[in-house]
Design brief:
Layout: E1 2-3, E2 8-15, H1 25-32, H2 38-47, E3 50-52, E4 55-56, E5 68-75, E6 80-81, E7 84-89, E8 93-98, H3 115-123, E9 128-129, E10 138-144, H4 147-159, E11 163-171, E12 177-181, E13 184-186, E14 197-199, E15 209-220, E16 223-232, H5 239-246, H6 261-270, H7 274-280, E17 287-295, E18 302-306, H8 311-319
């Protein structure tokens, strides 16, 4: 079910992190919130809408680690698809399968229209995300109901003991198996081009590894495509999408890594346009978090979660005139 909200006033805040310690307030805002161009921040600073530790501040103010930066705005959030199914629930955790148009947490144009805000209404404010998915990535999201469970899950993800498997539709004919070892890092501050995260040279980027396994190939209206299993062996931001594009097989529908830089710039400026969607090849990037295995916080038993492919994913694949496939085909 999609929903939207009328324009309303929000006051948003965040803490200055070590990476941006010592920056001017103008530079901090422009880099931390890239979905608003610098000119917008100049206007808000001039209007006195930005405060540091509760006090109105100008653009040349230098911020330090731990400073709380806040600003007010009138905003109408885009529509989202709040549909989800519960995969597992007990006293310690909750696992759901979310739709392919639902942010898991606040960010960018989304403030209240998020999975975590929606679930906290029914499960309480103690509910915490154990990990994150992109808005357009469907599939498994694991949440902790207690602080102890949250600490446990954080330790498990950080240690690399969590097994995650995704399904993705890639452009081109993928070899039977492809392993990608390519460091991922944040783009430098003086780089004006999105995306924010990309393959970088060491030591700027962090070591990242993804295994892709071919499941089905087909000739489609978008050219040859491959339905693939993607297994990330590290947990970097946008890792599967970045690595798929890096080896020349971007995920179909990816508006950041599968189109020209000119269209990416236009996406930040104008949002989704017919030209962008046509170039991307699908209404959303066709990536689905299908399986997740993790030690349970209560007794350490293996919690194995599986999420079937959502209808829009299968319909998109079928609409490409590709052969049908079944979940059971996945090893």
């Amino acid at each position: 079910m999609a929903t939207s909200e009328r324009s309303r006033r929000y006051t948003l805040s965040c803490l200055v992190d070590p990476y941006r310690d010592g920056w001017t307030l103008r530079a901090f805002l422009s880099h931390r919130f890239r979905y608003h161009p610098p000119a917008i921040w100049d206007e808000r600073l001039e209007e006195g809408a930005v405060r540091v530790n509760g006090t109105r501040a100008g653009g040349e103010r230098v911020v330090a680690v731990g400073d709380r930066v806040s600003y007010s705005l009138v905003h109408a959030e885009p529509e989202v698809d709040f549909r989800y199914t519960t995969l597992h629930e007990d006293d310690d955790c909750l696992a759901v399968c979310k739709s392919g148009n639902l942010p898991v947490h606040a960010g960018g144009r989304y403030i209240k229209n998020t999975l975590i805000a929606h679930l906290r209404e029914s499960h309480g404010l103690e509910l915490r995300l154990a990990h994150r998915l992109d808005r357009e990535t469907s599939g498994i999201v694991l949440l902790a109901k207690t602080r102890a469970a949250a600490v446990h899950f954080e330790r498990e993800f950080h240690s690399g003991r969590v097994v995650k498997k995704y399904q993705a539709v890639l452009r081109g004919l993928l070899p039977h198996e492809a392993t990608v070892d390519a460091p991922i890092g944040r783009a430098p501050l003086d780089d004006p081009d999105p995306p924010r995260w990309r393959v970088m040279d060491l030591p700027v980027g962090k070591a990242s590894r993804t295994v892709f396994r071919r499941l089905v190939t087909a000739e489609t209206d978008q050219g040859p495509c491959t339905l693939a299993l993607a297994i990330p062996e590290s947990g970097r931001t946008n890792q599967i999408r970045i690595h798929a594009a890096h080896i020349g097989h971007p995920i179909l529908g990816d508006k950041m890594h599968a189109v020209s830089i000119e269209l990416v710039r236009a996406y930040f400026r104008d949002g989704e346009t017919p030209e962008l969607l046509a170039a991307a090849g699908a209404h959303r990037h066709l990536l689905h978090a299908a399986e997740l295995s993790i030690a349970h916080p209560r007794d350490g038993r293996l919690l194995e979660l599986q999420a079937p492919l959502p209808g829009d994913f299968e319909l998109s694949w079928t609409a490409l005139k590709a052969p049908s496939f079944e979940k059971d085909d996945v090893p």
